[in-house]
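Re: your question from the hallway

Yes, I did run it. Sequences:
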Amino acid sequence: GAVVSQHPSRVICKSGTSVKIECRSLDFQATTMFWYRQFPKQSLMLMATSNEGSKATYEQGVEKDKFLINHASLTLSTLTVTSAHPEDSSFYICSARDHRADTIYFGEGSWLTVV
Amino acid sequence: GESVGLHLPTLSVQEGDNSIINCAYSNSASDYFIWYKQESGKGPQFIIDIRSNMDKRQGQRVTVLLNKTVKHLSLQIAATQPGDSAVYFCAENIKTSYDKVIFGPGTSLSVIP
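Structure:
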């Protein structure tokens, strides 16, 4: 079964609104989670590394005020796309590192469509 | 954001043949490498991994080879099956002040029945 759960799997929102995507580790504690973005027929692009209890580390070119990441607990990280625009429409994928098993698990992704 | 390349190469293989998918990585600080399979509309699925202190690792029908000298990684799939059709990504764990996993450009594998 899935060990990393993303919710929602699909979401449609209006331009200018904000939308939150959740990433949960189901049976392990994840001090580190990663958020990726993927456009059709392209690779996964790392947006940011989410660290429990501290600020996320954003990759170059990713607007931290637009893509808000919160990792308030050891099993939950959230990505909020603020003031969404149609160009934010994409597949967003999270992953979580299980330090005990030294393994990284991926969620099933969330499709965001901004209309 | 960071990604190694933005275009998707393709590979077509006859069913039953072996497939070899290649990947070049760029960071000497990478200590861990992973191959993922991604089917349309889904998240990446772990296939096999290898640490930088190894040069070969085998799984069920898959083998990963690592050549640190030329920063090259390959995934070999034996007796390729139609269910192997997917996009395959190599990923590297880069150790800086924090660890992060960066994906390669991916290869689309099509298996011809």
